Amino acid sequence: MADAASxxxxxxxxxxxxxxxxxxxxxxxxxxxxxxxxxxxxMPKEAQxxxxxxxxxxxxxxxxxxxxxxxxxKTAFEGINDASEMSTSTSTSTxxxxxxFSSLDGTAQEGSYDVSVSALANGQQSxxxxxxxxxxxxxxxxxxxxxxxxxxxxxxTTTKTISVSTDTPQGVVNAINATDHGVTATxxxxxxxxxxxxxxxxxxxxxxxxxxxxxxxxxDTSTAGPSLGLSSSITAQYKIAFANxxxxxxxxxxxxxxxxxxxxxxxxxxxxxxxxxxYTGLSDxxxxxxxxxxxxxxxxxxxxxxxxxxxxxxxxxxxxxxxxSAPTAILDGSAHTVTQVRAGVNNTMQxxxxxxxxxxxxxxxxxxxxxxxxxxxxxxxxxxxTATDSGANPVRLNISKDTSTLQTKxxxxxxxxxxxxxxxxxxxxxxxxxxNEMMGALRRDSATVRYVQNQLRTAxxxxxxxxxxxxxxxxxLGVEMDKSGNLVFDADDYKTAITGNYQQVxxxxxxxxxxxxxxxxxxxxxxxxxATKLEDLTDSDGVLLTRNTSAEDQVKVYEEDLAALEKRYxxxxxxxxxxxxxxxxxxxxxxxxxxxLEGQLESLSKAYDND
Length: 611
Hints:
The protein is α+β, with helices and mostly antiparallel strands. The chain has 10 helices and 30 strands. It folds into 4 domains: about 1-85 and about 405-475 and about 500-610; about 90-120 and about 355-400, no CATH class; about 125-230, Immunoglobulin-like (Sandwich); about 235-345, no CATH class. The longest helix has about 70 residues, at about 545-610. The two termini are about 65 Å apart. The model is unreliable at about 1-10 (pLDDT under 50).
């Protein structure tokens, strides 16, 4: 406390100090006496305010503890508010390499499933023409538009226009990858000297994601752009000379053969039975029919037609592909010249296809090899074709469910609720414990303690907002509340409920939904009902934060009271000191008078002694 508060008090203080130092006056330490008298008045009031601050700060800490414990309890209930969290599912496969369940959640339907795969889904891959370098000019230094038509072969397509500003292989790759049309581009160095760069395009799996590529001048669809070869598909074509006389002049054992890829089609030109030529010449449709029949029978992959100039036969590839080894022909036992009309080109490295499989006998087609809609809660992955010419060769998949996960989570809920109940009993106690400063921290706010406890108990004991049959609340899962307010879990009652009514239990707790939101209006199970109530108690306008804010405001008031008390008793101290200084001055004056009278009386006494 300050020793002075005004000029007058300063003067009094200085005077009293001088008197005290000189040993004048009463000899009493008036500073200490003034301080002691002030403290006698001030200290009880100061102690009362400090005690209120301590208790209110303890309340603030208690509100924080309650909020924290309710948060833990809310997390426990959120652990059982989604149907997929109710149990743990596991799966087996007789051929995991070919078919398996790559993902399962708690809702996965138990059972056995037979899957036979006849085709895998693929994304189209196409390659461009070859280029000498990454920077080879494709359009004489001028940009162009690349048109990407996406859709099933022979079906409706959607065309996307991609502007290529830099007319190089790298520029094309960059332009395609800057878009999001489901096709990505890569520039590959093939290592071939001179022409070693190709653009590779890769599309999304599924037949519906097939694509073709064309180019036009920038903004001008009527003017063709550079040919990139990305959609080149040219069937190889060959011809052999064949005159009418080769047919009409045929003799015994005279044949025409056409060989390709290790397979040979043989056309018998002479009828041994009638000892005559079978055919009358190129115009004989039976001859062309027989040639094509033999080609098909041997699976050679070519079709025959008569040349436009009637000089022989043209053999055309059924499916465009490059030909590394040309076909050969023999006529009447001698090699016959096969002339290439055009080379085969197919820059489609892989066609876009769907996966095709049977699931428990049901034929299914999907655009992906990862399927999430055939078994609830499970993702099916198919990786290899299992069906062969000899049979379907199905893979057996099994899903089993472990419901002990739910029991563990309910036991956690019970434990966390009991922790909360114990905390509230401790904080609301009328007793104190010198080893536990939080004991009774909320005894002055018993209304809030009772309110929070009652709100939560009501929610715990309530029926679910989505009941299911005989399962309506936690009581039906072996959870009861004892006389002390703690929850008790009966494992036998739980097992009875879960064994015969598992799906009803899931419905009661989760409403058969996942990914709950506090603000959604859809159905909620009991777990989310309680989690929502806990959120209400702890959110920004909930009772706990409101009481916490009020307590913090009250601490500020108490601190202001302390400051005002300090200032008030500074004045009291100054008043006491002024009064005692005046007393000391009076005592000094009286001492002076006493000394004078003593001197006078002593003088008179001596005078009488002399007489």
